[in-house]
């Protein structure tokens, strides 16, 4: 290897070792359409035209954000890859697209093969949950950009849907039911605020959680991975007339649901209609946060929204339960101009 390059801070051998460790994890995500393994210049994937004769490709890219700081502080890197996959595949699932393959980008100040393997193992776990193949990626060593022990992680997903199955919210009608699928916690948004509140409170990440979650350390609760909704969402699309879907990420319900309303519909949300993890009420109290702050920053216990005709709501909720999701009817569609109206106060309904 180049001694000069190593003296400059880049260890090619460490990168090679990390790439070698990825192979077994990627193999767990194999699909028959995947034509290449990790290690080439590109990943090749054959479209399943037997199931998608009129294919529309849907792509999405995202990262994990400052939730990574929690992983750095705890030295725990095995779930953060699930977050990365979830943020991408959930985004493309809202259009009815089945995730086909995934690529990750891991940039490290100094490549530590053991840490890199933990990260990619999480990516592979997420891909396995979503049913997509991990067919490529990049591990970059960037001394001077990232501090030692720190890294950034981003991903890119491609999915497919038949043209006549594309979902964009255009079918939404008056009285449609808004169904919320429960989140597993904070997912991957709002962590800059969360970290500030924890710092201001002087609470250690390895201390018992103050949120009310029993027997859980605070750091463990915060690292709970983003839930992957694509399998359940796609099953609901196959079995019910789904009129629209939304992934509740940065901006919360307030800014994500209007993306499918096309300026024609409003949503009336009933805040008492769902149960949320206790972390949200703790954040509201600790930061003295208004409902507007909460609903524009966090998912507030709803990670994914599915819109169906009112008469189909009970069946869709029951089916979501069979698919492993906690679902509730949280609102209704009314003619409007793309606004979210909240009925009730978060503190009054989730004290």
Order of helices and strands: HHEHHEHEEEHHHEHEHHEHEEH
Amount of beta strand: 15-25%
- CATH class designation of the largest domain: Alpha Beta
Major sheet strand order:
6-8-5-9-7-10
Q: Any idea what the radius of gyration is?
A: 21 Å
Could you state the CATH homologous superfamily of the largest domain? PurM-like C-terminal domain
What is the residue-averaged pLDDT? 93
Integer tally of domains: 2
- Tally the helices: 13
Residue runs with pLDDT of under 50 for 5 or more positions: none
3D architecture notes:
This protein has 351 residues and is an alpha+beta fold. The chain folds into two domains: 3-165, PurM-like, N-terminal domain (60s Ribosomal Protein L30, Chain: A); 177-349, PurM-like C-terminal domain (Phosphoribosyl-aminoimidazole Synthetase, Chain A, domain 2, Alpha-Beta Complex), CATH 3.90.650. 34% of the residues lie in helices and 22% in strands. It contains 13 helices and ten strands. It has helices at residues 3-7, 12-27, 68-74, 80-93, 113-130, 191-201, 218-222, 230-239, 252-256, 279-287, 291-297, 313-322, 346-349, and strands at 55-63, 98-108, 133-141, 151-162, 177-182, 244-247, 265-270, 302-308, 327-335, 340-343. The strands form two sheets. The chain has a six-stranded mixed sheet. The protein has a four-stranded mixed sheet with strand order 1-4-2-3, covered by helices on one side. Strand 2 (98-108), helix 5 and strand 3 form a beta-alpha-beta unit. The chain is globular, with a radius of gyration of 21 Å. The N and C termini lie far apart (60 Å).
């Amino acid at each position: 290897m180049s001694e000069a390059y190593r003296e400059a801070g880049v260890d090619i051998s460490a990168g090679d070792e990390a790439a070698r460790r990825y192979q077994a994890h990627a193999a767990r995500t194999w699909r028959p359409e995947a034509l290449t393994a990790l290690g080439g210049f590109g990943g090749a994937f054959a479209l399943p035209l037997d199931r998608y004769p009129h294919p529309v490709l849907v792509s999405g890219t995202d990262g994990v954000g400052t939730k990574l700081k929690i992983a750095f502080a705890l030295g725990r890197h095995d779930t953060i890859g699930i977050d990365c996959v979830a943020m991408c595949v959930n985004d493309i699932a809202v259009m009815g697209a089945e995730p086909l393959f995934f690529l990750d980008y891991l940039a490290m100040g100094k490549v530590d093969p053991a840490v890199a393997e933990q990260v990619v193992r999480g990516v592979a776990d997420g891909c396995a949950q979503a049913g997509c193949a991990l067919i490529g990626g990049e591990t970059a060593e960037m001394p001077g950009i990232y501090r030692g022990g720190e890294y950034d992680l981003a991903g890119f997903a491609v999915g497919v849907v038949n043209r006549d199955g594309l979902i964009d919210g255009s079918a939404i009608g008056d009285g449609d039911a808004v169904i919320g699928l429960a989140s597993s916690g904070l997912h991957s948004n709002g962590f800059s605020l969360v970290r500030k509140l924890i710092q201001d409170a002087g609470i250690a990440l390895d201390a018992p959680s103050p949120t009310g979650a029993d027997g859980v350390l605070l750091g463990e609760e915060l690292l709970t991975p983003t839930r992957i909704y694509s399998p359940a969402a796609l099953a609901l699309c196959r079995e019910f007339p789904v009129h629209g879907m939304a992934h509740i990420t940065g901006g919360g319900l307030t800014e994500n649901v209007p993306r499918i309303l096309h300026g024609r519909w409003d949503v009336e949300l009933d805040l008492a209609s769902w149960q949320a993890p206790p972390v949200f009420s703790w954040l509201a109290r600790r930061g003295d946060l208004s409902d507007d702050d909460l609903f524009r920053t966090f998912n507030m216990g709803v990670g994914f929204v599915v819109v169906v005709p009112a008469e189909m709501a009970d069946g869709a909720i029951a089916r979501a339960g069979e698919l492993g999701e906690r679902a509730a009817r949280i609102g209704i569609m009314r003619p409007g101009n793309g606004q979210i109206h909240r009925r009730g106060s978060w503190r009054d309904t989730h004290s």
